[in-house]
Every structure is written in structure tokens, then in C-alpha cells.
Amino acid sequence: MSHTAHIPSHRKPRRSASKLSLRAGVAGGVLSTIAVAGAAGPANAEPVTETIEMPTLNADLSADLSSAVAASAEATQQIALDQELQAQEDAAAAKAAKEAKTAKAEAERKAEAEEARRKAEAKAQAEAAERASRSSERTTLSASVGSDDGGSSYDSGQATGSAAAIVAFARAQVGDAYVMGSTGPNSWDCSGLVQAAYRQAGIELPRVSGDQSSRGTSVSLDNLQPGDILYWGSRSNSYHVAIYVGGGMFVGAQNPGTGVVERSLDYDMPSGAVRVL
Fold first, then answer.
1. What's the CA gap between 244 and 226, in Å, rounded?
2. d(Cα 77, Cα 192) in Å, to the nearest integer?
3. Percentages helix, strand, coil for the chain, rounded to the nearest 5?
4. Is the pLDDT reported for residue 93 higher than 70?
5. Domain extent for 110
6. Are 246 and 159 in contact (CB under 8 A)?
7. In this predicted structure, what is the pLDDT of residue 161?
8. Are 171 and 262 spatial neighbours (Cβ–Cβ below 8 Å)?
9. Same domain as 185, residue 111
10. Are residues 152 and 129 in the same domain?
11. Do residue 129 and residue 188 come from a single domain?
12. Which band of pLDDT confidence, cut at 50, 70 and 90, is reported for residue 34?
């Protein structure tokens, strides 16, 4: 056995490569300084034989570096959080602005629709009042023919009962518009007006003019009575109808240009007439 076998080793533990590099750098700098100083000194100066202990990285320096790295990472993370929060706030503000714009547009649309509804309602009320006024003014029907009729041979007599209701309704619609296929209350075609007028007397007529002119019995144009249905064309195949209202006059929804009018038979002489009452 070696005589040194029980003597503990005095070797120091190996240092890491990074620490050795740092110590070597420091040592190199110190030795360079000493060399320069020696070169600058007198030629007969004695050589330096003192051993210089090199500084070492202690635990405090390592802790400081770790703290600095951690602080930098925390600062970077805080910046990222601040940027994310700002982006969320910007998105929320943009969404709120968009919703406010949409709500404003919807409110304006509803206001316009309400204004249009009020105007339409006011117009309908005015038209109803006008028709009521016309109806009240025309409840008494004239039956005179004589000289006021220009010598006409039509003898209509006084409208009474169901005929009076038919005539009054027809005259109350004078001034309304003509619209093909319309049955009221503010626009009519010829057969739609006749059908609605007869409904006032409790009589339900067919919808179209050809079928209406086929009802009842035929009467000559010189023996008309208020409420008779006038037709143009051939019976059962007529293309236009109107209501005789007495005094040589008729009421009919003529065309889009005139609307519902009251005219003399001479204005447009009918082909024939039928009596349903």
C-alpha cells in the first residue's frame, strides 16, 4: 500500500467552463497590467513574485443575474398583457359603436314607418269623411225627367227601398279610383262597384260583368228604374256594367282616366239593362 493512501486529497473541485473562462479573462487582464507596469519600471527592478488571488463569481452575483433576468421576463410579459388588454378594449369600443349605429338606423326606420302609417291613416279618414259627406248629400234622389233631361224619354221614378240603398252607395263612391280587379273600399273596377252596391240591399251578385248582366230580367232602355244594371256588349257576355241612378244618369267605374263617375246615358249609351230587384 502507498504511504499516501490515507492522506486526504487537497484538490479543489472542478469549476464550470463559464466560470473558468471568466477567471481566465480577469487573470489575463491583471497579468497584462503587471507586465506593462514592469516594462515601464527601472531595468534593475526586482521581479514580482507575489501570488495574486483571482476574483471568483460568488452566490450574490449569480442571484443578481437571476433577478435581472426574471425582472426582464416579467416586464416583457406585462407589456404583452397591456397590449392584449388594449386590443380587447379597442374591439369592445368598435363593437359598441357598430351596435349604436345599427340601433340608430333601426330607430329612424321605425320612425319613418310610423310617420307613413299616420299619414295613410289620416288620408283614409279624410277620404271616408268625404264619402260620407257625398252620401248624405245624395240620399234624396231626383226622379224628374222633363226639360232638365233634354227631352229624354227615360222615366226612372223615385228610388225607394233597396234601390235607394244601391243608388246611394254607388253615388257615394264617385271620385274613387278605377283599378282593374279592385273591390274597394277606395278603388273599384266596374263589376266590383256593382257587386258592392247590390250587397247594400242584401243581394249577392257574381263578381264579373258577364255574369252580372245575365241575372234578373231584361228591360228596355226607355223603361229604366233606379238600381237597374246597365251593360255594354251582349247580355251574358258584356265587357262593362254600371248602375242606373235615375234622371237619365248612371254611376260606374269607367276607366283609369276617369275613375268612378256619374254621367248621362248620352255620354256612353249602354247596350241594354237588366232588373234584379
1. 5
2. 81
3. 50, 15, 35
4. yes
5. 75-137
6. yes
7. 83
8. yes
9. no
10. no
11. no
12. very low
Euclidean distance between CA atoms 52 and 261, whole angstroms: 130
- For residue 251 the three cell numbers come to 254611376
Distance between CA atoms of residues 235 and 214, nearest Å: 6
Q: Give the distance from CA 218 to its chain's centroid.
A: 56
- Number of domains composing the chain: 2
Domain annotation covers residue 30: no
Residue pair 187/258 in contact (Cβ under 8 Å)? The answer is no
Query: What is the rounded end-to-end Cα distance, in angstroms, of the chain?
Result: 153
| Residue 232: other Cβ atoms inside 10 A | 18
Residue that has been written with the C-alpha cell 273591390 in this structure = 183
What is the residue-averaged pLDDT of the chain? 78
Q: For residue 28, is it within any domain? A: no
* pLDDT (0 to 100) of residue 176: 97
Per-residue CA distances from 190 to 90, 208, 212, 257, 260 (Å): 66, 9, 11, 13, 9
| Helix 161-172 vs helix 190-199: crossing angle, to nearest 10 | 140
Which DSSP string corresponds to 206-264?
Answer: -SSHHHHTTSSEEE-TTS--TTPEEEEEETTEEEEEEEEEETTEEEEEEETTTEEEEEE
User: HEC states along 47-79?
Assistant: CCCCCCCCCCCCHHHHHHHHHHHHHHHHHHHHH
Give the predicted TM-score (pTM) of the model: 0.47
Q: How far apart are CA 200 and CA 252, in angstroms?
A: 16
Residues 6+ apart with CB under 8 A from 130: 175
